[in-house]
């Protein structure tokens, strides 16, 4: 017998249900719960992919593939944090597309254009950029660096970081803002952008 949305928390607006509650319903083949998660995350995931790829079709395909996998593997998947899982999936799929070479040329043309406009060094390799990022991160205060990496590398939400470290969400937001303000001027605009294109190689 399948669980239904109204049978879990009657009287509560389904839009207020947590990811965990909806995932439990998805595991019981509740398509309505899946559609709610789909609508909750689709645009955010799309923008996350598009901000790097600058390719509408590729970004849409990536999100569709991830959400389809979520439904197909609903019974066997063990997801502790849907937010982290989805953004990690986006990260993996985006870099898979980049490394396939299908849109790399256009992507790096855009980065090179930024480099020209900002008179930045254009001969840096991926290894160079990651090294610069690691060095810049090492100059951040320890707690600031830890929070930044949890946010950008593990894609934890502000609330998840706050709970893990036992601090307030406001402190998390403040530390991420500080990190971004310090990293951007040190690395330069184009290198800062490229660093996040290559950020799957963070050493943390």
From TrEMBL:
Domain RNA polymerase sigma factor 70 region 4 type as annotated: residue spans: 132-183
Keyword Transcription: yes
Pfam families: Sigma70_r2, Sigma70_r4_2
Source organism phylogeny: Bacteria, Pseudomonadati, Bacteroidota, Sphingobacteriia, Sphingobacteriales
Highest taxon of source: Bacteria
InterPro entries assigned to the protein according to its UniProt record, in alphabetical order: RNA_pol_sigma-70-like, RNA_pol_sigma-70_dom, RNA_pol_sigma70_bacteroid, RNA_pol_sigma70_r2, RNA_pol_sigma70_r4_t2, RNA_pol_sigma_r2, RNA_pol_sigma_r3/r4-like, WH-like_DNA-bd_sf
UniProt source species: Pararcticibacter amylolyticus
MF terms in GO: DNA binding; sigma factor activity
Listed GO biological process terms: DNA-templated transcription initiation
Keyword field: Sigma factor, Transcription, Transcription regulation
Residue span, RNA polymerase sigma-70 region domain: 37-100
Stated family: Belongs to the sigma-70 factor family. ECF subfamily.
Full protein name: RNA polymerase sigma-70 factor
């Amino acid at each position: 017998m399948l669980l239904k949305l109204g049978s879990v928390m009657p009287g509560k607006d389904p839009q207020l249900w947590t990811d965990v509650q909806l995932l439990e319903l998805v595991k019981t083949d509740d398509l309505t719960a899946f559609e709610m998660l789909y609508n909750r995350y689709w645009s955010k995931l799309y923008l996350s992919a598009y901000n790097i790829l600058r390719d509408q079709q590729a970004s849409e395909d990536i999100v569709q593939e991830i959400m389809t996998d979520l439904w197909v593997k609903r019974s066997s998947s063990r997801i502790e944090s849907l937010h982290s899982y989805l953004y990690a999936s986006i990260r993996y799929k985006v870099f898979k597309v980049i490394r396939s070479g299908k849109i790399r040329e256009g992507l790096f043309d855009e980065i090179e254009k930024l480099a020209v406009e900002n008179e930045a060094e254009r001969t840096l390799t991926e290894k160079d950029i990651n090294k610069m990022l690691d060095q810049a991160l090492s100059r951040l205060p320890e707690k600031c660096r830890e929070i930044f990496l949890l946010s950008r590398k593990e894609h934890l939400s502000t609330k998840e970081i706050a709970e893990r470290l036992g601090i307030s969400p406001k402190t998390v937001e403040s530390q991420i803002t500080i990190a971004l303000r310090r990293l951007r001027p040190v690395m330069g605009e184009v290198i800062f952008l490229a660093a996040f294109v290559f950020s799957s190689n963070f050493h943390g």
